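I need you to check the entry underneath: sequence plus fold tokens. Let me know what the token row says about the fold.

>
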Amino acid sequence: MIVLAIDTAGTACNVALYDSARGAPLGNAGADIGRGHAERLMAFIDEALERSGLEMNAINRVAVTIGPGSFTGIRVGVAAARGLGLALGIPVVGVSVLQAQAFSVLAGKPGQSVLIVTDAKREEVYVQSFDAAGQPLTEAEALDIATARTTFGQFAGTIRGSGAALLREDRDIQPGETHPETADIAVVARLGAALDPSVALPKPLYLRGPDVRSQAGFAVARA
């Protein structure tokens, strides 16, 4: 099975092709672009296909990160994945950024439970714990830092993520313990290949509303 993986949930716009039968990556493309995911995504998909030596009709499944992360970025990725799925008549699965990060950690520290803590800004963190097999122990949540410290401050397993240092001020976070907010696109592809399309639906995991909201007080009255 050939899987196209898409990640636009953070500042990066990354795509990859993966052959699940051989367990082998075929090609990837992308960059940390900050903004403009909608304008760049299809070009990166074309680039990854070219590097893989594949045509679009060779893809058997699309895997897309569903968040948490950028409200706009998530919408772009999920909409593009759904559109490709409809056009090609193939299943689309959603992959949690937090779970992808947990699997990346477990590759280096197997046999331990993992807590992923992402700095969500505005004095909040996205947080979720996983067992040694990478399966969720808690629901993904957006918590203020004080509540997160109370709830997870004594977590006994491995703590990783861009918000790890915010969780436990008394703990010295060593170099290499923090992870970027962006998921490893190769891990997203592998997870997407293993997920059940009837269960892992590509439904956005926003956790909170968009940072930018319309200014109702400046609305123009209709004639």
